[in-house]
Amino acid sequence: MQLGTTIVVWAAALLALGVAARWCGGRRWRRRGDALRRRLTGAVPSVSANTCAAPLDGLPAPVQRWFGLVLPREPRIIATARLEHVGVFNLQPVGERWRRFRSTQLVTTAPRGFLWDAAIAALPGVQVLVHDGYVVGEGILTASLQGLAPLADERGPGELARGELLRWLAEAVGWPTALLPGRGVQWTPVDAQRATATLRDAGHEVALEFEFGDDGMVAAVRCAGRGRAVGHELVPTPWEGRWWGQQVVDGMRLPRHGEVAWLLPEGPQCYWRARITGVDYTFVGEGAAAGNDASSKVASGSSCPGVPAAAATSAASAATRSASSTPGGR
């Protein structure tokens, strides 16, 4: 009886230690994320000028059509975006070992940046916590087991920052006003359904090919080389993102599902597949973009005229037709 009592006491003590360790690790991880978010949003000006006055008629035809589909007649310019995802992440560099994850992502458009904060269920009761981002021109990739045991801690310029800026550009279909003329992206035509977007930021230059589906929506983005971790090096590797499904947020038509993959010689290696479950924006001229009162609205300079009415009307009817036939995703 005494031995049994001793075992129970020790088991309870070990359980308490485990709970305390997880709480401490989680608290430490949240504080690290908060510091990165403050650094990211601290560079966002309280009032931004409207810099999208360039007309759309100088853009490649599929890009013009896409803007007509996804934006209202006079879109407000997005300053920050907060997204929530649920999905699966492939932990195997080759092969498949999918694990569920939940994440939030904070995005800024001026300056360009983001922070993806994810919790991946690696084992029952055990999470891998990840920060992946582009913050003030610096690439960031950190991972930790329960916030206690570091698994990765990479940050800096060079190929890492370039890869994170490519991610920002690929996912900008979720904050589409950042791709308008005058916002720093240069569009060049490829053919009737493809165009290349080139972006320069903080000394980095990246380019992505956007492919538009028959419905006019962005179906895929591709680049010839994004840094893929191979051992202790980042090796430029062909990379692809795909988007499908539709949802309307603040009058803008956005993708609902996405996946990304490395295009390896032996075939695509998909490693991220998710559904966007929440989107919240602040707009240029709203004090919340710089941490001020969200109720403070500034009408001037917060919207961007220039989406042709005819394009918007025809695009809206096309989008309505395509929405009814969109696959549910994976």
Question: Could you explain the architecture of this structure?
Answer:
The chain has 330 residues and is of the alpha+beta class. It is built from 4 helices and 15 strands. Strand 8 and strand 9 form a beta hairpin. The longest helix is centred in the first third of the chain and has 41 residues, at 2-42.
Q: Which tags fit this structure?
A:
330 residues; alpha+beta; 13-stranded antiparallel β-sheet; two-stranded antiparallel ribbon; 4 helices; 24% helix; disordered C terminus
Mean pLDDT: 83
- Helix/strand order: HHEEEEEEHEEEEEEEEEH
Into which percentage range does the β-strand content fall? 35-45%
Count structural domains.
1
- In the predicted model, the low-confidence regions spanning at least 5 consecutive residues are 6-16, 288-301, 309-330
Helix and strand content put the structural class at: alpha+beta
Shape: globular
Number of strands: 15
Distance between the termini: 54 Å
Kindly provide the radius of gyration, computed on alpha-carbon positions and rounded to a whole number of angstroms.
Answer: 22 Å
Strand order of the largest sheet: 6-5-4-3-2-1-15-14-11-10-9-8-7
- Give the oligomeric state: single chain
Number of helices: 4
Q: Major β-sheet, in short?
A: 13 strands, antiparallel
What percent of the residues sit in helical stretches (DSSP H or I)?
Answer: 10-25%
